[in-house]
From TrEMBL:
It comes from Geomonas paludis. Keywords: Cell membrane, Membrane, Transmembrane, Transmembrane helix. It comes from the Bacteria. The chain crosses the membrane at residues 36-54, 74-97, 132-151, 197-215, 235-257, 263-284, 291-311. Its main location: membrane. It holds the Pfam family ArsP_1. This is Permease. The keyword Cell membrane applies. It is found in: Cell membrane. InterPro entries: DUF318, UPF0718_permease.
Length: 315
């Protein structure tokens, strides 16, 4: 039905040639825009209701009772459903450290939360199907768990800024909400999220549509295709300086896969953009000394590269 609408709008209302590059790009843009916004509006609301059960204080309490390894797994899973991004890194990091959460467990959460979220899951599911969506979620969780474990085993607590250890964040009382209050929260959150991300969605889909309609068929495959042994680290290096949320990068990912890039290379690029952005490094520099910050970026980048090669090899 959506495809029929997109075809009608692009080729009948606007009058574009269905075989032209512009026609293909506009048809791609209309179809994906309508589809993604419908998915976001419906599913983000449901996820927001789930998120209402996980306040920052509740999250700290849950993680503070779990030691390393088990804590890493739980922290990575909690990162999927909790509403925190890299902008929340400083207060969350301080709160986690004050609560006695092991450093490696804290990093598992901080990696998973921005990398794996409902927006990425929804858009990937809608564009590629459940297999690709769950592959992304699973690989993101694995990266968060392994990277957090590695950082924990290095015992680098001394490379956290000194003032972090001196701060004491008081335990706030957790107030239970009625379902009506949760509904109001979810509705407000959905509206605010859509207001915040709709430009990224439109720009991302527009860029994806341009790649879909105009990029030479073999250009990207030539430099980052399956035959290039350095394609995965190259994708990660390109992704790190970029800044985008999942809403903006997923349509670009769709277009890149449509041009023939292997799934591992594309997922590595997406993970690097969402989990290792330059703004995140600037924020984290306020609580981490240079050596720990570099170690964090290096371990996560290495884990992403390994995951990318694994998917390219076995899928």
């Amino acid at each position: 039905m959506l495809k029929t609408f997109a075809d009608y709008f692009a080729f009948q209302v606007i009058g574009l040639d269905a075989k032209s590059r512009l026609g293909e790009a506009v048809d791609f843009f209309v179809y994906d825009t309508v589809k993604i916004f419908l998915l976001l509006t419906t599913i983000v609301y449901v996820v927001a209701v789930i998120r209402s059960y996980f306040s920052p204080e509740r999250t700290r309490r849950i993680l503070s009772h779990n030691r390393e390894y088990i804590g890493n797994v739980l922290a990575a899973l909690l990162g999927i459903v909790t509403p925190f991004c890299s902008c929340s890194a400083v207060p969350l990091f301080i709160g986690f450290v004050e609560s006695g959460i092991p450093l490696g467990v804290t990093f598992s959460f901080l990696i998973s939360s921005p990398m794996v979220n409902e927006v990425a899951l929804i858009m990937l599911w809608g564009l590629f199907g459940w297999k690709i969506a769950l592959t992304y979620v699973g690989s993101g969780v694995v990266v968060a768990i392994l990277a957090g474990m590695a950082i924990g085993r290095l015992h680098m607590e001394r490379y956290v800024q000194d003032y972090v250890w001196e701060m004491k964040v008081g335990a706030a009382e957790i107030q239970e909400q009625s379902f009506r209050e949760k509904h109001q929260y979810a509705s407000g959150y959905t509206k605010e999220l859509l207001k915040k991300i709709w430009p990224y969605v439109v720009v991302g889909i527009g860029l994806g549509a341009f790649i879909h309609g105009y990029a030479p068929e073999d250009l990207l495959v030539r430099y980052a295709g399956r035959d290039n042994p350095l394609a995965v680290p190259l994708a990660v290096l390109i992704g790190v300086p970029l800044y985008s949320n999942a809403a903006g990068i997923v349509p670009v990912v769709q277009a890149l896969m449509g041009k023939g890039l292997p799934i591992g290379t594309v997922l590595a690029f997406m993970m690097a953009v969402t989990a290792l952005s330059f703004p995140e490094a600037v924020i984290l520099k306020n609580v981490l000394k240079t050596r720990l910050l570099a170690t964090f970026f290096g371990i996560v980048a290495a884990a992403i590269i390994i995951v990318g090669y694994m998917f390219n090899t076995f899928l």
